[in-house]
Amino acid sequence: MILGGVMHFICLMKSHAAYGRYVDTSGSSMMVPARLAWFLQEIPALLVPLLLMVTTDGNHGTGKHLMLWTFCLHYFQRSCIYSLLTKGRPYPFNIMLTGVVVCSINGFLQAHYLLHCATFHNTWFSDACLLTGLIIFFLGMGINIHSDHILRNLRNPGEISYKIPRGGMFEYVSGANFFGEIVEWLGYAVATWSLPTFAFAFFTICFIGPRAYHHHK
Prior knowledge:
Elements: H1 2-14, E1 31-32, H2 34-42, H3 44-55, H4 62-85, E2 91-92, H5 93-117, H6 128-152, H7 176-192, H8 195-216
Antiparallel strand pairs: 1-2
Helix pairs in contact: 1-8, 2-4, 2-5, 3-4, 3-5, 4-5, 6-7, 7-8
């Protein structure tokens, strides 16, 4: 995950990923409608942890379930709500397929760690890292959802053009939706205080950070 993040950062700083505003509709790539693509791409990160929870024996403890359901909450919103509301352009099939693989691997990584490797003590619920991390996570999630709402409302029905957004966190950063998601996963990493979650937060920064940079330009 960390190595993948470094490789993505190097590549994406040189040339942006060809989806959304950067998609080449004149190319030979097979295209998938944006709503279907986002649903199929994000849903594995929701279903894989749920499947592991159902098929794993034993009492996993409240702490493990709390953090895993927090992880699933993000991907429920992305796959079952965001995907139905998005007004984006058609999505290249190969990029969607890459997203399916990444979300499947990460869903397994986070769920396997929490269910089989993580150890939470009785004092964990009063731990500053948990409380601080959850506050940061939900703050980032709120920023992300609100920023997506602003972006959707920039367009009239049938429009797919891009405009400069105003309001909310867009008054302070040009990529407020990306900023919100980065804050989310940094908060999740702080709450769980584990290598897998910090690795995913690092990967998120490396993947959508360059995209935010190109958007700003």
